[in-house]
Serine/threonine-protein phosphatase 2A regulatory subunit B'' subunit gamma (Drosophila pseudoobscura pseudoobscura), 439 residues
Amino acid sequence: MELDPDLIEQFSNLMVSTRPISAEELARFDENAPLRQRNEIDHPSYKTIPKFFEAPLPPGDTIRQNLRKEAHSLYLQQKSQELLDSNELDELWSMLLKHVTQMTATGQQLIDFDAYLQLQGAVNAKIRNYLTARLFGTLLVLSTHLDGMVDIVSVFNYIMRKVWLKQARIGLSFYDEMGRGYLRESDMESYIIDLIPNMAQIRDCMQPSFQSFYVCTVLKRFFFFLDAQHRGRICIRAMLESGMVTDLLDLREEADPEDPQDKNCFSMPAVLAVYRNYLSLDKDHNGMLSQKELADYGSGTLTTIFLERVFEECRTYQGEMDYKTYLDFDMAMNNRRSPQALQYLFRILDVDHKGYLTVQTLHFFFKGIQEAFQSHNEVPVNFEDINNEIFDMVKPNDPCKITLQDLIKSGKAETVVSILIEFHKFWAYETREENPQNV
């Protein structure tokens, strides 16, 4: 068999280490020593701080890259085999029922630690790995029973939830080929596309031509809320902790007729509502939104000054906004209490890019509200009064500057931002005593 000359050349240029290794170091190497102990030889700080950074492999080092991908794939397959399947979960529940210590008057089935230890011995090793003493102790702390017992339902639900989270993490990690713990936009896009055939609530009601818009909408939501720093990647752990993956995977189950589908932001009704709103704003049907078209968004009372700033700060194409840019705008406007939306809106309000708002900044945007008063033939409100109210609400660390952190800390950020950019919201705030339901 003739070997590929390119492969031979790659092996000859393969660098197993980023620095030359002496014969003495090679002789001292112990493959059975713990990793931290081996690292301590390189630097004494590793005794207290584990090594947490590995330099990325060079782009041309295809051998080690493929080796790492293969090792990562095998690791995930091994972890998949450790998960409990539906039959094993049924077996766990059956064994829990057999080891009930006491039943309460309300029908709760409780288990004490002695019975829990017996349960550990009665199940197979795979299930036993989940029935740890730590789990019992954790549930005991949370238990309302004072006799050292926990509800078997809480044991089962905890394990089932843990299995589900591990399964979700493994599913996401398969798209993280290099095992770095995060997904880039292209990785996440592939994950969503591959997931659609298994999403019962999506696959049967989605036209093929709409798939790209559905994927774009879902992808943008993940990155808007989980990549506020615009690094182009999302930590897998952050995705799981956010609950957004749960919402997405819930769509694999058949829809409950009694449960409104639009409650799930990834459902077809919810995504279609966003897309149809975009189409309704696109009056000239060119697939893009001009500033004039975006002025009809929501209540239709966003100030001209604010809209001008949106088009200055956001990515546009020949002065018009595409669907991707609109999604960020829409999510910011509909989630004004969230830190991510406030960061988006603060960037628009921060005209001078100084990282804070001043009296001059507030006055600049309030001119848009005053213009709306004039168009409605109403008597304009005195800016000094509004300025004082805003600073009183926010209570910034610096009495002359309002930072994003000041806004978030105050708990009044949604109100402050809204009364500066939208006449409808400002009027609701001004008449809050007469019409509190409008605030």
Remarks:
- The CA atoms of residues 138 and 376 lie 61 Å apart.
- Residues 180-269 form a domain with the Recoverin; domain 1 fold (CATH 1.10.238.220).
- The longest helix spans residues 152-173.
